[in-house]
Amino acid sequence: MECREPEPRHCRELADRISAYLDGELDAAGRRELEEHLGACLECACCVETLRRTIALCRWAAPQPIPEEFSRRLDALLERLVVAP
Amino acid sequence: MKNNPIPAAAVADEDTALVQRIVAGERELFRVLVERYAPRLYTFGRRMCRNEADAEDLVQETLFNAFRHLPEFRFESRFKNWLYRIAVNVCRKRHRRLRQAAEEELPLEDLEKRLPEETARTAAVPLWARLPLERLLSEELIAQVHEAIWSLPEKYRVVLLLRDIEEFSTEETARLLRLTPGNVKVRLHRARLYLRERLKGYFRHGMQGT
Ligand SMILES: [Zn+2]
User: What are the boundaries of each domain within chain A?
Assistant: First the structure.
């Protein structure tokens, strides 16, 4: 599973495509090439997993509920908008 | 609100009929759109602006502009995309006013070169990327993620939020921001790499076992 013969240049080229890979935006050939490499190169596999997790954390941490006080002000704004002639 | 002839929708979704009715005169139905979108707009605002009051202004101004300009909506995109286009413009105007550097770059050149070598030192995928997500979740981590997002230059931050949080496609994001899809992809990848470095640092120093 270890990358005994690392080919840094190849890794670097593939690293640029990791986001596209995670987003399902690589074509079949590109995906196959990357997946074959991931099976053989622990470093790149690690890159993929940490990036995947980064996106998940971002998605999970983002939502922010509207504070009640602001919610009341939004209602007031709405009132003015829809009632005004 | 003027009553222009309502164009047929080129892109129809659950908002289309609603928007058509509002434009046709049922103004009070705008409430439904606000209920539907205010929470996500607020999240978008809070992740775009560090300041809570700025985020609130962003939501109010976006909804206000959307209502006022609704008769001009041509149904050529989804309503949601049109709404976010307004939100992005409100944000940009605000940042220009504050003279914030929108063209700031991410210092990623070194980071990208370092990438394979750095992870080579990690014998395996680190715990923070392996553990079930629920095991990691904490208030502190939320705060860290928010800090990391805020520290992105705006042009990267907006792409990350639209793609990874709002889940617009690459194409939609490109149209929304008037960028090429290639540009969106590059900015998104860089933003993610930057966030990963920040999170790596946090897990290395702030948490055990990683
Ligand atoms: Zn590799």
Answer: 8-83
- Whether residues A8 and B116 touch (CB distance < 8 A) is answered with yes
**Which pLDDT band, with edges at 50, 70 and 90, does A9 fall under?**
confident
CATH number of B8-98: 1.10.1740.10
Q: Which of B156, B140, B204, B70 is nearest to A61 (CA)?
A: B140
ipTM here: 0.87
CB B118 within 8 A of CB A6: no
Q: List CB contacts (< 8 A) between B145 and chain A.
A: 57-58, 61-62
With CB atoms and an 8 Å threshold, state whether A58 touches B145: yes
Identify the CATH assignment for B106-206 out of 1.10.3720.10, 3.40.50.300, 1.10.8.470, 1.10.10.10.
1.10.10.10
Q: From the list B42, B123, B160, which residue is nearest A64 (CB)?
A: B42
Which amino acid belongs to residue B133? L
- Cα of A34 to nearest chain B Cα, Å: 14
Choosing among 2.40.10, 1.10.10, 1.10.3470, 1.10.760, the CATH entry for A8-83 is 1.10.10
pTM over 0.80? The answer is: yes
| pLDDT surpassing 90 at residue B134 | no
Burial-class residue A36 by CB neighbours within 10 Å (0-12, 13-18, 19+). exposed
In this prediction, residues B101-118 reach a mean pLDDT of 57
